[in-house]
Amino acid sequence: MGKVIGGADDWSGGKTTGSTNPERTIAAVKRLIGRAYNSTDVQKDIANLSYKVVSGPGDQAYVRVNDKDYSPSEISAFILQKMKQTAEDYLGEEVTEAVITVPAYFNDSQRQATKDAGKIAGLDVLRIINEPTAAALAYGLDKKKEELIAVFDLGGGTFDISILEIGDGVFEVKSTNGDTHLGGEDFDIRIIDYLAEEFKKENGIDLRKDKMALQRLKEAAEKAKHELSSSTETDINLPFITADASGPKHLNMKLSRSKFEQLADDLVQRCLEPCKKALKDADVTINDIHDVILVGGMTRMPKIQKIVEQFFGKSPHKGVNPDEVVSVGAAIQGGVLKGDVKDVLLLDVTPAVSGN
Q1: What is the value of pTM for the model shown?
Q2: What is d(CA 355, CA 106) in angstroms, rounded to the nearest whole number?
Q3: H or E segment at 82?
Q4: What is the pLDDT of residue 23?
């Protein structure tokens, strides 16, 4: 979700306001949180963001809207405030505490910045837990016998793989690996670049140089990506995307699933190396893995499911919703901390990652 900042301070669906307010609609801020402005990853991201990113205190990446600078923690706090309000409306009482999940491969700086976001939102953050661990909690709460599972978590901005031993209320993380700069947004960019290049070939105009056109391309790319999870082809139709001396221009193209898979093949392959490392670090083989849990919207992509099945030699577990499983696990952890859920022991690891 995005929030339009500056002017009316009400929440609005960022996806619907993005094309009319591209410079004031903030999305994908998780990729900036706790990161240095001059880091390679942030510099790479800036080219694909409709809003302005600047160097803030301590060279941290900040977001500039209407000449005011916001830290990614402050932007994230807007989202947490909305979540707090939603929970309070549903429960009919005040919510003051939270368990927040982060990618397993977040470093200390990113974890602290996430905790800061909770504080700004008026929440007492009881625990920051790793997303794959939360997913394992949701999957394995009722498991009695010991088993090894792999949690394959490919979300909007990050990728994690964790190997856990679970059974009889004990959840022990054996290893974790990942890429904090690999996720759905990267897949979107492949579609955006393809559409922009094809349009440029035909019309001599680069749509990526126009913030409003770029935002419409982004929305269309994400929609096409979602549709290609269940269809083999999708139509992308953007009327009046731009204009030149001869009049308005329209973008109308077809994109097949096979073309999308070709465009994103290297991103799909990038998921495999962390999987190999996680198995090696846990000192286990593929044959030792009892189940593979898929987490994150990108795992709906058929090609991702296929490579997971090929790599692990078994079909991924289908019993959990990849979009909800982490939230359910965070709620269970909240229950453990408040004494409502008994006999659960969580043995997690914080990966030794450096850099920003």
Answers
A1: 0.87
A2: 10
A3: helix 72-91
A4: 83
Q: Is the per-residue pLDDT at 193 higher than 70?
A: yes
Q: What are the chain's domains?
A: 3-70 (3.30.30.30), 125-182+271-347 (3.30.420.40), 184-265 (3.90.640.10)
pLDDT tens string 44-57: 888 888 899 999 99
**Identity at 338, one-letter amino acid code:** K
- How far apart CA 134 and CA 151 sit, in angstroms, is 10
**CA atoms within 13 Å, Cβ hemisphere of 334:** 15
Residue 13 has pLDDT above 50, yes or no: no
* Radius of gyration for the alpha carbons in the chain, expressed in angstroms and rounded: 21
**pLDDT (mean) for 4-17:** 45
326 CB-side CA count, 13 A: 23
Q: What's the CA gap between 158 and 107, in Å, rounded?
A: 13
Residue 317 has φ and ψ, to the nearest 5°, of -65, 130
58 contact partners, CB below 8 Å, separation of at least 6: none
- Residue 20: predicted pLDDT: 66
* Cα separation, 338 vs 12, whole angstroms: 33
Q: Are 236 and 252 in contact (CB under 8 A)?
A: yes
Please, where are the H alpha helices in 146-249?
184-203, 211-227
Of 87-96, 183-192, 259-268, 345-354, which range is least confident?
345-354
Q: What's the mean pLDDT when you consider all of the chain?
A: 90
b/e per residue 49-82 (b: at least 16 CB within 10 A): bbbebeebeeebbbbebeeeebbbbbbbbbbbbe
